[in-house]
């Protein structure tokens, strides 16, 4: 269905407002090509959370470490060869930080403490 912006705005004024309002903007810190792992990562709780390949890559300091992680997880069967190839391509083209900011020591403990402080 083709529709110009003005017609859409008239038909859906509230939706248009939500889509264009600055307060509804989100910052992306990393991109996951696997929807299931993305949903796990977006969870509000860390209880039962299992780190995925992106979590491990975010702990790497350099490309060499990241390649080792990808190869290891592929060998163990935790990621497919196709997924490993996509990750290696992203790593080569965009670098290790393209998977997100580095996760330092006690990352998950700090995250849990932060979430607990927000609840209080």
Present the secondary structure layout.
Elements: H1 5-11, H2 13-20, H3 35-41, H4 53-57, H5 63-76, H6 81-94, H7 107-119
Helix pairs in contact: 1-2, 5-6
Describe this structure in words.
The chain starts with a helix and ends with a helix. The protein is mainly α and 120 residues long. Helix 5 packs antiparallel against helix 6. It has a domain of 70 residues. It contains 7 helices and no strands.
Shape: extended
- The termini sit apart by 47 Å
Helicity level: 55-70%
| Helical run tally | 7
Poorly predicted regions are none
The strand count comes to 0
Strand percentage lies at under 5%
Mean pLDDT: 80
Main beta-sheet annotation? none
Helix-strand topology string: HHHHHHH
Rg computed from alpha carbons, rounded to a whole number of angstroms: 19 Å
Structural class, from secondary structure content?
A: mainly alpha
């Amino acid at each position: 269905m083709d529709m110009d912006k003005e017609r859409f705005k008239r038909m859906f004024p509230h939706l248009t407002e939500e889509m264009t309002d600055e307060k509804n903007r989100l910052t992306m810190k990393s991109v996951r090509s696997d929807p299931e792992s993305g949903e796990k990562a977006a969870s509000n709780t860390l209880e039962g959370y299992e780190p995925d390949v992106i979590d491990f890559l975010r702990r790497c300091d350099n490309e060499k470490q990241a390649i080792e992680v990808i190869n290891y997880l592929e060998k163990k069967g935790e990621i497919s060869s196709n997924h490993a190839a996509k990750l290696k391509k992203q790593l080569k083209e965009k670098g290790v930080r393209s998977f997100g900011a580095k996760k330092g020591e006690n990352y998950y403990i700090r995250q849990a403490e932060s979430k607990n402080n927000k609840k209080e």
